């Protein structure tokens, strides 16, 4: 069975501070995909990043960076110099494809980030 | 707008009534997913289609729930004999064929059962 744990329920930071959102996953499959999504107050989930299990290279996109470590089954997300517009709920998700076309997608419970001006 | 669309955006119904939601995915996407999201929780997988075939159904999808994607394009999710516990946001997403591709979500349908 797959499981995604986001232990941080809510985080508050002051604008311009750096913040890291934690994600720990569990799966027995060797091929899997990890995602981060942002859900702003408007409600629509916005895709941020995808990583497959064979690619442990960290990624940076502007103020966003992701640290994938298979050894600790973690896929953490850091926002540098946070801004008020970063305030949202962030979800980590795990996807596994099985033979025959079956797929299992599991989301974490989300971390609510509040950036205070 | 070529994103995922859902209709209606909000639905209020009385307990025991049937409701149907529609999802129009991104046209190039083969896969279509339905999720349910309750307050303070992440989306919970309900079911997904690859083209018109329904390949996976969650145990969350009781007998009162049925989903279709008759021509491999839009999909409908029907809930029969609604219960108050069905109140939630119902999200639709679409993606290309395999799990390596990100899912693009629609704005959701918020269901309130009174």
What do you see in this structure?
The complex is a heterodimer of chains A (117) and B (114). Chain A is an all-beta fold. Chain A is built from no helices and twelve strands. In chain A, a hairpin with a 5-residue loop joins strand 10 and strand 11. Chain B is mainly beta and 114 residues long. Chain B has no helices and eleven strands. The chains are: A mainly beta (117), B mainly beta (114). At the A-B interface, strand 5, strand 6, strand 10 and strand 11 of A face strand 4, strand 5, strand 6, strand 9 and strand 10 of B.
Task: Give a nutshell description of this structure.
With 117 residues, chain A is mainly beta. Chain A has strands spanning 3-5, 10-14, 19-21, 24-26, 33-39, 46-52, 59-61, 64-69, 74-79, 88-97, 103-107, 111-116.
Total of DSSP H or I helical runs spanning 4+ residues of chain B: 0
What would you call the structural class of chain A?
Answer: mainly beta
Number of helices of chain A: 0
The span between the termini of chain B is 33 Å
Strand content of chain B: over 45%
SSE pattern of chain B: EEEEEEEEEEE
Radius of gyration of chain B: 13 Å
Helical percent range of chain B?
A: under 10%
3D shape of chain A: globular
How much helix is in the residues of chain A? under 10%
Rg from alpha-carbon coordinates of chain A: 14 Å
- Poorly predicted segments of chain B: none
Give the topology.
The complex is a heterodimer of chains A (117) and B (114).
Chain A: E1 3-5, E2 10-14, E3 19-21, E4 24-26, E5 33-39, E6 46-52, E7 59-61, E8 64-69, E9 74-79, E10 88-97, E11 103-107, E12 111-116
Chain B: E1 5-7, E2 10-13, E3 19-24, E4 31-37, E5 44-50, E6 53-57, E7 65-68, E8 75-79, E9 88-95, E10 104-105, E11 109-113
Parallel strand pairs in B: 2-11
Antiparallel strand pairs in B: 1-3, 3-8, 4-5, 4-9, 5-6, 7-8, 9-10, 9-11
């Amino acid at each position: 069975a797959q499981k995604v744990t986001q232990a941080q329920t809510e985080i508050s930071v002051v604008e311009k501070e750096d913040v890291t959102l934690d994600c720990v996953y569990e799966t027995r499959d060797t091929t899997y995909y990890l995602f981060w999504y942002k859900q702003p107050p408007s409600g629509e989930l916005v895709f941020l990043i995808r990583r497959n299990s064979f690619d442990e290279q960290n990624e940076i996109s502007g103020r966003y960076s992701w640290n994938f470590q298979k050894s600790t089954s973690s896929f953490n997300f850091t926002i540098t110099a946070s801004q008020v517009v970063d305030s949202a709920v962030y979800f980590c998700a795990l996807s596994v494809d099985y033979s025959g076309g079956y797929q299992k997608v599991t989301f974490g419970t989300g971390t609510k980030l509040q950036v205070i001006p | 707008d070529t994103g995922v669309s859902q209709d209606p955006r909000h639905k209020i119904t009385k307990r025991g009534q049937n409701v149907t939601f529609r999802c129009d995915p991104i046209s190039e996407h083969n896969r279509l997913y339905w999720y349910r999201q309750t307050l303070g929780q992440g989306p919970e997988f309900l079911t997904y289609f690859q083209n018109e075939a329904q390949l996976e159904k969650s145990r969350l999808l009781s007998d009162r729930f049925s989903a279709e994607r008759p021509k491999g394009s839009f999909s409908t999710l029907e809930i029969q004999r609604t219960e108050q516990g069905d109140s939630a946001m119902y999200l639709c997403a679409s993606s290309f064929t395999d799990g390596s591709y990100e899912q693009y979500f629609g704005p959701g349908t918020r269901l309130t059962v009174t």
